[in-house]
Every structure is written in structure tokens, then in C-alpha cells.
Design brief:
With 380 residues, the protein is α+β, with helices and mostly antiparallel strands. 36% of the residues lie in helices and 29% in strands. The longest helix has 17 residues.
Length: 380
């Protein structure tokens, strides 16, 4: 018999929080590709006092037990920014990690559905933890490689169990593998053409004005991505929290802000792959994890990074003169990564039907190596 315990995210009992965070150890104990996220980071995301998502959202956590032992987890959440933008009464489920047991998944998602139904939602979509601006999708291809920072990982059976619970695919997204090295001639030409334009200026994010520049990056991102499926813009306080989080991780050389005639026009931002450095910490930053992490980050240095944001304002995107902008950004990031000694990276995610972006990544030498699936089912 499966027993489900739950609690609002604002008042998580310590035992339930411990089981929610720790259940992954038994689920992924034989999975060599799994990297347990830092408990502190996951805990902060679930804390309304520390995550500005809760200024426009709410959520609940669920833990499944069998024979008194935790065997799975999930969340349900509502994003009022999404509802205001789309008016579709869609609620979300996320953090779905379970043993290979259809009863466990069905029980968790039935409870999540009931919570969403009580709040007037008509459709249930996920996994999204907690919104589209955090981790998204269930891994359906690419199980043999470790996830990059801020990307989920699942057991091969997980997607099938979600489908058995009555969910159908609504969208796939791709993660792309990229080997840092010599640029092809087409990209080199695009880099030269853009560099030669007198009105085009390129610079790195300035650590001394980090919040200002992160706001600028997100402003361009919000414009560039505004027509993408299910897009929800980041709020002012979410941007401020992002800037605060970046103080430890951000490497200015892995960023670019491009201005055209003084107007910020395009951005790219990559983060060192934190997962490369925390695999042996088992989610614990204390008492010794922080020292190991700082040494690996600041002294030893990472060998990989993830391109999190690349966007061009719509007004510049279709101007023929500036069409090489995306290739220019890829080239600039590639050259900086080489100087830093990075060997490979991940680009994405990208939507399966964003054909122009996907073609551009292929042209740069990227390979789609992971697929994440988003599911839906009607509530009730």
C-alpha cells in the first residue's frame, strides 16, 4: 500500500523535508550518471522566504511511502504569472523521482491533481520544478551522461510511468553537446563580419555592476523569447535573486552583451558546470563540502559549462545586416571557453520545433544528445 504525505512549501516539517531531499539516494543508487543537487539549493527553491517565485506562485510537496520507507516524491505548483499571460488554468507538477512502481507514480500524481483541482486548475502539465524558468521535462533520451547544472536527470522507466498515469506528450526540448575547439569557416566569417561593423560593440558582464547587467541580460532574454511556447518573463525580484546567486558561479568571460549603436541588442551567458564539482558531496555543503566546492571552482577550475541564455532582440533579429549575430555570439563564447581551458559544453534547452535555433546549433557543430519531455492531462 502506498501512503502519501504532503505539506505546503511554506511550512515543511523537518522529517518530510529530509525524506523529500533524501529519497533520491535509494532511487538513483545504481545510476552512475546521477548527480544529487545540493540540498541547500533545492531547499531554498522550496522556501517562500528565499524564492521570489512564491510572490506569484504557491506549491505543495508530496512524499510517497511503502512499508514506512520513502519511495518517491513530487510537487504541485501554480504560477499566477503563467495564468495571467495565458488564462489557460494550467497547473504544474514537478520533482518526480520514484522507484520503478506505477502505483507510486499514480498515487503521487493523483494527489497533485486533487490539490490543483481544489484551486480551479483544468489542466496538469509537467514535470516543471516549479515553473518553466526552473528545471523542465522528464528525461527520455540520454541516460548515460551526467546532467549539467540546472538540468534534471531521471531513470529510464520514469517517463513510461508518467504515461501509464494518463499523461501524453505536449512538447520535447533538447540539450545539445558541444566540443569546444576550432570554429568552422562559416562561423569565423560571421565573427569577422560582425566585428568589423563600427556600430557593434561587445563586452562581458561587469562584476562591479552585476545586478544592473543581469537585469539587462534578462530584459533582452524576455524580449527574445517572448513568443516561445509557454514563455513566462522573469520578475524584477527573480532577476535580483539570479544576480545574487551568480556572485559565486558567474565567470565574466563566459558572458557577452552586444550593443548596436549604443542599444543593448543581444546577450549570451554560460555558467560553469557545477554538477562537475559536486558529484561526491551527496547533496551536502556542510561541513566540508563548501571548501571542496570553492577549491574546485576557483583553483582547479571546471572543464565544462552550460550555455543558459542566448537571445537577440526581435527588432534586430531579422535585419539582414545583423543576421550573423547568433554565430558571432557562439564564436565569442567558444574563444573565451578555449582560453579558460574548458573542453566541452552543453547548449540548451531548446524547443523541438524551434527549427531556426536548432539549425544554428547544428551548424556550429552541436549534437542533440538529451531529450526532455513535457506531459499534460486534463484534470478531472
Amino acid at each position: 500500500m502506498v501512503v502519501i504525505e504532503h505539506s505546503p512549501m511554506g511550512s515543511l516539517p523537518s522529517r518530510l523535508k529530509r525524506d523529500f531531499l533524501g529519497v533520491v539516494n535509494s532511487i538513483y543508487q545504481s545510476d552512475k550518471a546521477y548527480v544529487r543537487p545540493l540540498d541547500m539549493e533545492v531547499g531554498q527553491r522550496l522556501d517562500p522566504k528565499k524564492n521570489p517565485f512564491f510572490e506569484h506562485g504557491e506549491g505543495v510537496v508530496f512524499v510517497a511511502y511503502k512499508d514506512g520507507k520513502p519511495v518517491g516524491r513530487a510537487t504541485a505548483s501554480i504560477d499566477r504569472e503563467h495564468l495571467a499571460r495565458y488564462g489557460d488554468n494550467v497547473g504544474f507538477f514537478g520533482f518526480v523521482d520514484t522507484i520503478d512502481d506505477a502505483e507510486v507514480v499514480r498515487a503521487l500524481l493523483t494527489q497533485a491533481e486533487a490539490w490543483l483541482k481544489e484551486r480551479g486548475m483544468k489542466t496538469m502539465r509537467g514535470p516543471m520544478s516549479l515553473s518553466i524558468n526552473e528545471e523542465m521535462g522528464c528525461l527520455v533520451d540520454g541516460f548515460d551522461t551526467k546532467p549539467f547544472v540546472m538540468m534534471p536527470h531521471h531513470r529510464p522507466y520514469q517517463a513510461g510511468l508518467i504515461e501509464k498515469a494518463g499523461f501524453e506528450k505536449v512538447k520535447d526540448v533538447y540539450a545539445w553537446s558541444y566540443r569546444i575547439g576550432e570554429l568552422n569557416k562559416r562561423t569565423q566569417r560571421a565573427q569577422r563580419e560582425m566585428s568589423a561593423l563600427p556600430e557593434v560593440e561587445s563586452r562581458m558582464v561587469d562584476r562591479k555592476h552585476l545586478e544592473r547587467d543581469v537585469r539587462l541580460v534578462v530584459d533582452i532574454f524576455n524580449d527574445a523569447w517572448s513568443e516561445n511556447w509557454a514563455f513566462v518573463p522573469l520578475t524584477r525580484n527573480e532577476v535580483a535573486k539570479m544576480a545574487e546567486d551568480f556572485k559565486l558561479l558567474l565567470v565574466p568571460e563566459l558572458t557577452r552583451i552586444v550593443s548596436i549603436e549604443g542599444e543593448p541588442a543581444a546577450v549570451s551567458l554560460a555558467l560553469p558546470n557545477l554538477n562537475e564539482m559536486i558529484g561526491d558531496l551527496n547533496g551536502k555543503i556542510l561541513p566540508f563540502g563548501i571548501a571542496k566546492l570553492l577549491y574546485r571552482l576557483k583553483v582547479k577550475g571546471p572543464k565544462s559549462a552550460r550555455l543558459v541564455i542566448l537571445g537577440i532582440r526581435k527588432k534586430f533579429r531579422m535585419q539582414r545586416r545583423y543576421m550573423p549575430l547568433s554565430s558571432f555570439l557562439y564564436a565569442e563564447m567558444n574563444e573565451s571557453a578555449k582560453k579558460l581551458g574548458l573542453e566541452h559544453g552543453e547548449l540548451g534547452w531548446t524547443l523541438e520545433d524551434n527549427h531556426a535555433v536548432n539549425a544554428g546549433i547544428k551548424m556550429m557543430g552541436g549534437t542533440a544528445y538529451k531529450t526532455y519531455r513535457v506531459y499534460e492531462r486534463p484534470i478531472g
